[in-house]
Design brief:
356 residues, alpha+beta, endopeptidase fold (from Nostoc punctiforme), 2 domains, hydrolase, Peptidase_C40, NLP_P60_dom, NlpC/P60 family protein, cysteine-type peptidase activity
């Protein structure tokens, strides 16, 4: 058998394996399940969840002795009906089939927005009679508790209901979030944890080598692909920057680490097009590729529309420049050339929105 045929067969084999790995592994795919079987699954979920009422809340815990909110749902689904749900609240939200409140049944999930930025941040298992079980981190009662959707706190922070049992076609004509979105994710835990973070900023500085005064340095746009973790979220992206201060166009490649929703640190190499000059002079300088740029961004709480977040951001970054012979610049010229502030808007949206 020649090499070309072997490569073709390997290509198709790898494709089939990857396709199987990406298939959703929950009961949506089981359109052949009878109503009786689905009802049994729901009862098992509720019975299992009730066993852990009173267990303590521990951030990141997935049982059996302690839980956080998504850890409880994750553990109960796995233990009771051998369903592997995504691990985080936001991924569960994207994974679930969002349903109208009128279709809410015991064994479905209820989601809440409990943080200042308006994002989906809490999940519980609905057990009927307007009650749900969840792992609460604060309030008068913490740990795994039974709560009512009629309680003022939960009623005002309620976001949506979702299901992961049964045939997803049941609600194709009647799915809508209270927040106005009708998204349901891809069904793949990895993809549902990915999101895009795009921003547009104007760049400025407070001094040049000759004088202290605010000055316009240019415009930048960034696009980052981020994998959402529980506390730290790594990202990879690029920036397009017209650096008016040094009169050149720059393309940094950014490796980012997001600390929650409000802080991001990043660094990476920088590729520069054109000749660079020290600000406010005609002295030629040379942009360094690596080390290239390092920076930190601070974001405000977001304005949220469905799953799209819009935030104001403030960025502080430093790019490395040298003399044309490779020698280091003086500290003052280095700071005047490389230190910049960027102010603008950040827009975050989940990866799965492009597959709706």
């Amino acid at each position: 058998m020649d090499t070309a045929k072997i490569r073709i067969r390997l290509f198709f084999c790898v494709g089939i394996v990857l396709s199987l790995l990406l298939l959703p592994g929950h009961c949506f795919a089981s359109s052949g399940m009878s109503e009786a079987e689905i009802r049994v699954c729901r009862e098992k979920l509720i019975t299992e969840a009730k066993k852990y009422v009173g267990a303590p809340y521990v951030r990141g815990a997935t049982g059996p002795d302690a839980f956080d909110c998504s850890g409880l749902v994750y553990f109960v689904a796995r233990e009771a009906i051998q369903v592997q749900l995504p691990r985080t609240v936001k991924a569960m939200y994207g994974y679930s089939q969002i349903i109208p409140d009128s279709k809410l049944e015991p064994g479905d999930l209820v989601f809440f927005r409990t943080t200042g930025d308006g994002s989906i941040s809490h999940v519980g298992l609905y057990v009927g009679n307007m009650q749900f079980i969840s792992a609460a981190s604060d309030g008068p009662n913490t740990g795994v508790i039974l709560s009512s959707l009629r309680e003022n706190y939960w009623k005002t922070h309620y976001a949506a209901s979702g299901k992961f049992l049964g045939d997803s076609r049941l609600y194709e004509e009647d799915t809508a979030l209270i927040s106005g979105s009708s998204s349901s994710g891809t069904g793949n835990a990895f993809l549902d944890n990915l999101f895009f973070d795009a921003n547009l900023t104007f760049d400025w500085s407070v001094f040049t080598e000759k004088r202290f005064m605010p000055n316009f340095r240019g415009l930048s746009t960034q696009l980052n692909v981020v994998y959402e973790g529980k506390t730290l979220s790594p990202g990879l992206g690029t920036m397009l920057r017209w650096n008016f201060g040094v009169k050149s166009f720059q393309i940094p490649l950014l490796f980012s680490l997001y600390f929650g929703d409000y802080v991001r640190a990043y660094a990476g190499p920088v590729f520069t097009v054109g000749t660079s000059y020290a600000p406010d002079t005609d002295d030629e300088i040379k942009a360094s590729i690596f080390p290239g740029i390092i920076g930190v961004s601070f974001m405000t709480p977001s304005l949220t529309k469905g799953d799209v977040k819009v935030r104001i951001m403030q960025d502080i970054n430093y790019s490395v420049f040298n003399n044309t012979d490779g020698a280091a610049l003086s500290p003052m010229r280095s700071a005047a050339s490389g230190l910049e502030f960027s102010t603008g808007v950040s827009v975050t949206l989940p990866f799965w929105m492009f597959f709706k």
